[in-house]
Amino acid sequence: MTTMANIQTFTDAFEPVLEAGEDVLYVGMSSGISGTYHASEMAAEELREKYPERTIRTVDTRAASLGEGLPVLFAAKAREEGRSIGEAAELTKLFSKTICQYFTVADLKYLQKGGRITRLTAKIGSLLNIKPILMGNEAGEIVLNGKTRGMRHALAALAEKYRELAADKSARIGIAHADAPEEAEQLLSLLRESGLTGEAICVCYEPVTGAHVGPGAVALFFSGTHR
User: Fold this and answer.
1) What's the CATH number for 7-96?
2) Per-residue pLDDT for 102 more than 50?
């Protein structure tokens, strides 16, 4: 199932924490691609009235997958360093604005099924071995950034984006793939050649995102000078 989480899902998750006398900081996926964040904020509004003594903050990362995961780790570190919920939320919002997210797919039919391209475009693109370079824009929406021929060139294009935009090459980056570990390793090798010295978190896409991008997709996430 790829439907969004509803308000009750968030209420069920938040309320036990609030009842235990703790505050809540939720760092969520992009409102530009899902209504999930809006549901979290609606649940938070209801619970703020019920628990006025507690702090409930939500952060729209305007990103997904490890583009959301990196801000989650950032928020956790801020709390470990003694930041309040409010401070951690504001710092995480600022950090999220710098997250660059670029990805490519192996099979265009999944973009066609998701309504991002037409059936004809998918058919022609597949015949020509076109690999789109997609990105998350400032609004958290997925948009086309470029095109290449073949996966090797697509991975090189992702590495070039890192070389151009990375704010700190010693910082942690993320790579997500859909059953494409070899391609993920190829991308990491290119990133190392481009100067990456920081930690690289490499994960397989969870089923929901994987259903949208299809097998073979590879994505890169890092903190940049701008999106």
Assistant:
1) 3.40.50.10440
2) yes
